[in-house]
Amino acid sequence: MARSNTQERPSRLFRNLSAKIAAVPMILTAMVVFVGFSVWTVVHSFTKSGLLPRLNFVGTLQYERLWNSDKWLISIQNLVIFGGCMLVLSFVIGFVLACLLDQKIRYEGVFRTILLYPFALSFVVTGVVWQWMLNPDFGVQSIVRGIGWESFAFDPLNNGKIVMFGVVIAALWQGSGFVMVLLLAGLRGIDDEIWKATRVDGVPAWKTYLFVIVPMLRPVFVTTLVIVTAGIVKVYDLVVAQTDGGPGIASEVPAKYVYDQMFLNQNLGQGFAASTMMLLTVAVIIIPWAYLEFGGKKRG
Q: How far is CA 288 from the centre of its chain?
């Protein structure tokens, strides 16, 4: 028995050998580009790099300055607001739309295309479009007042207290369709026999979705969560196109802080420290997901 296992291991090693060899350049590129430059960034975050990177180590000084910066703290606060709203609302909207399309309605392909179309646009285009839509002179406020509601006021992009909710509206318009497609693919993978069994038992459709279908979609939900969260952490172009961080610094986000420090203020050390914190945030999300998805399966 032990001998057969020993013979089986080399055979597994050389299985699909050509595909494994073809993947070597991609693996090496990923190791050099992603891992190598990530380590390089972390190392230089402990230096006093200015216009050019240099190994002039100053310990944790850049991190102390980072967490004493009002601009950075506001960007973190905005990221929490933006991320919380996006995770909750995009999943709710995406799941509801996926459930509606899963009823195999007429012209499903047309509706699916319309709902997914915003995701094909760049965030810059989305930001500019919603900058116009939320402009009080000719946007939503102007249209509603033109109908006759003269007292209606809706100008989130010029109000520092609610400006991030204006950014959330644009992000939801673009991203909810993507979440819908991922969840719809998961719904289409559910066996029809489950639906038949719940109908025979007289279980209402909403209870079937909530107590039967949602638990079965856990892997799809987790994967979608990781993709959406990674996009939230690095949000930049949408904010720049829509508000440019304004009014004042009310809509600053970490990615914009990194860009401003590295290219406008010519303070690479501070930019490296901020980007390292962003990398740490993504790692906190990715590592548990990878452990749950792959480590659990391997143990099973």
A: 16
Predicted local confidence at residue 91, as pLDDT: 95
Angle of the 268-290 helix axis to the 218-233 helix axis, nearest 10? 180
With bands split at pLDDT 50, 70 and 90, how would you rate the model's confidence at 68? very high
Instruction: Give the fold, CATH level 3, of 64-299.
Output: MetI-like fold (1.10.3720)
Distance CA 39, CA 200 (A): 58
Q: Which residue do the tokens 């196109």 mark?
A: 241
Considering only residues 298 and 135, tell me which one the structure prediction assigns the higher pLDDT: 135
Q: What are the backbone angles phi and psi of residue 57, rounded to the nearest 5°?
A: -70, 135
- Spacing of C-alpha 250 from chain mean position: 21
Report the alpha-carbon distance of residue 240 to residue 160 in Å, rounded: 15
252 contacts 71 by C-beta, under 8 angstroms: yes
Looking at residue 52, the DSSP 8-state letter turns out to be: S
Helix (H, G, I), strand (E, B) or coil at 16: coil
User: What is the rounded CA–CA span in Å between residue 132 and residue 17?
Assistant: 55
Question: Around 177, how many Cα atoms within 13 Å sit in the side-chain half-sphere?
Answer: 16
* Among candidate residues 189, 186, 188, 194, the one with its CA nearest the CA of residue 222: 186
pTM: 0.85
- List, in sequence order, every residue forming a beta bridge with 47; answer none if it has no partner: 57
Sequence letter at residue 7: Q
**Residues of the chain with pLDDT > 90: what percent?**
48
